[in-house]
Amino acid sequence: MTGVFVDTWAWYALSDRNDRDHELAQETLEHLLAQRYRFVTTNFVLDETLTLIRYHLSHAAAVRFWHLFWDLVNAGLVQFVRIGAAEEQMAWEIFEAHTDQDFSFTDCTSFAVMQSLGLIYVFSADHHFAVMSFVLVPPIP
Q1: How far apart are CA 84 and CA 113, in angstroms?
Q2: How far apart (Å, rounded) are the C-alpha atoms in residues 69 and 95?
Q3: CA-CA distance, 136 to 27, in Å (whole number)?
Q4: Strands 121-123 and 135-137
Q5: Fewer CB under 10 Å: which end of the chain, C or N?
Q6: What pTM does this model have?
Q7: Which residues contact 53 (CB under 8 A, 6 or more apart)?
Q8: Domain 3-137 class?
Q9: Cα–Cα distance measured from residue 66 to residue 77, given in angstroms and rounded to the nearest whole number
Q10: How far apart (Å, rounded) are the C-alpha atoms in residues 90 and 108?
């Protein structure tokens, strides 16, 4: 089973029915589920997603997402990775080395985890992943 990293873009687009990327994210999710991809995400992505949902939707929506997210983890559908010291160091090295990019530190932690786990696919429309040679799903048109 192939792994795919789930970025904040995907979690948020799936959560907000009014988001311009909601339908695309929903179709992509259905495709990934049909292909039996293994989903992977991190505590930094969870934090970023909860914050976006809280400020753009509501506190109640963030609480609903939290419970749904942990149901997915507990059902074995999502592998939850907590960023540790090794990933933080690797992320910092990526962040520091790419002075020509506007990567967030959260992006860099995602890159570090993907590299550590040997993942090449990312469920995201964030072009920063493509800059780092990861394969976006869905692809950027």
Answers
A1: 10
A2: 28
A3: 14
A4: parallel
A5: C
A6: 0.94
A7: 12, 15, 16, 61, 62, 65
A8: alpha beta
A9: 15
A10: 8
Residue type present at position 112:
A
- Confidence label for 1 from pLDDT (cuts 50, 70 and 90): low
List pLDDT tens digits, range 92-111.
999 999 999 999 999 999 99
Phi/psi at 39 (5° precision)? -90, 140
pLDDT-based confidence at residue 140 (cuts at 50, 70, 90): low
Burial of 106 (C-beta count, 10 Å sphere; 0-12/13-18/19+): middle
Q: How far apart are CA 128 and CA 98, in angstroms?
A: 11
